[in-house]
Amino acid sequence: MYIIGIGGGTGSGKTTVVRKILETLPAGRVALIPQDSYYNDTTHLTMEERRRINFDHPNAFDWALLIEQIQRLRQGLSIEQPTYSYIISNRLEETVHVEPCEVIIIEGIMALWRKELRDLMDLKIYVDADPDERLIRVIQRDTVERGRTTQMVIDRYRDVLKPMHEEFIEPTKRYADLIIPQGGNNSGAIEIMRTYIIHRLKPESLSPDHP
C-alpha cells in the first residue's frame, strides 16, 4: 500500500487535482479519504454553537479517528468512513465503506499538519495557489454549495480563513515532498502525479488498453 497526503489552503485546487488524477486511474485501485469527513462530531452542540466553530483550526478535526482508520487500511482492514454535512455542521448517520487499496490518497487543508498522520504517508504533496485565486474559488464554492452569501464568505475569509491559513496551513508546505503551484490548472504536475501513481500500481491492476 502507498499512502499519499495532499494538503493546501481552502480554494487552492486540492479537490480538482485529486479528481483529475483519479478520473484517469483504474477503478477500485485507489481510495480517496477526504479530511473534511473527519470534522468532530458536534451532536451535543446547538446549531448556534456549531456555527461558531472555527473549522479552519486543527482542533476542529477528529485526529484520533482519522489516524486510526488510516492505520486500519494499512493493516489491510476495511473502514466505515464518516460523512459530514456543511449545512448542519455535523456528521451524518451514513458512513462510506472503504476497502484497503493499493494507493490511498488523504486530501484536506491540514492533511500535512499532524505528525502522526504524516508519518503514515509515503508521499506528501502541497497544492499552492495565490490568495486572490483561493478567495475567488471559495466564493464560487460556498455560495453555490454551502448556502452562504458573497459577503458572508468575504467576512469569513478575512476573519478566519486568512489568519488560519497563515498560522496553520501555509507552514505545512515545508513538510511536502512536492509542491504543485496553480492547483487544478497545473496540467503538467497532474500528469506527472497520474503517471507516478500508475507506476505504483501492480501490473495486473491495469487493463491492456490503459496508458
Q: Can you give me a brief rundown of this structure?
A:
With 211 residues, the chain is an alpha/beta fold. It is 37% helix and 19% strand.
List the helices and strands and how they pair.
Layout (H helix, E strand, L loop, with lengths): L1 E6 L6 H9 L7 E5 L12 H5 L11 H12 L4 E7 L4 E9 L4 E5 L7 H4 L4 E5 L3 H15 L4 H20 L8 E3 L6 H14 L11
Parallel strand pairs: 1-5, 1-6, 2-5, 6-7
Antiparallel strand pairs: 3-4
Helix pairs in contact: 1-7, 5-6
Question: What labels would you give this structure?
Answer:
5-stranded parallel sheet, Rossmann fold, alpha/beta, two-stranded antiparallel ribbon, about 210 residues, about 20% strand, 7 strands, about 35% helix
Task: Give structural notes.
The protein is of the alpha/beta class and 211 residues long. It has a single domain (2-205), classed as P-loop containing nucleotide triphosphate hydrolases (Rossmann fold, 3-Layer(aba) Sandwich). The chain has seven helices and seven strands. It has helices at residues 14-22, 47-51, 63-74, 115-118, 131-145, 150-169, 187-200, and strands at 2-7, 30-34, 79-85, 90-98, 103-107, 123-127, 178-180. Strand 3 and strand 4 form a beta hairpin. Helix 5 packs across helix 6 (150-169). The longest helix is centred in the C-terminal third of the chain and has 20 residues, at 150-169. The chain is globular and about 50 Å long.
